[in-house]
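Course assignment 3, question 2. Fill in each field.
Student: A.L.
Task: Predict the tertiary structure for the chain below.
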Amino acid sequence: MDTKLTLIIDHHVKEDAKKYAKEMGSSLSKLVENYLKLLTAKRKKTENEIPLSPFIESMRKKAVKVPADFDYKKELEDAIWEKHRKGYEKNID
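Answer field:
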């Protein structure tokens, strides 16, 4: 459940933070919330673990699963060959 929080900060800091949040496609509230999550998450982690930002954590949850035998080098090579083959065929015509 969301709740309202009132902060007293320098006007220029607030304006700069609002601009930054807008550039990042977010809001000042989300920016502060994510920062506070990051700070409090550090306390929950063990000393050996490196805490990830909430944004990175959300990306991990959306990660695509690939087969164990997936050969990314072959896929990349095939894509490059296909790209250049098409370019070569255009130049022949």
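Instructor remarks: The chain has one domain: 11-92. The longest helix spans residues 72-92.
Grade: pending
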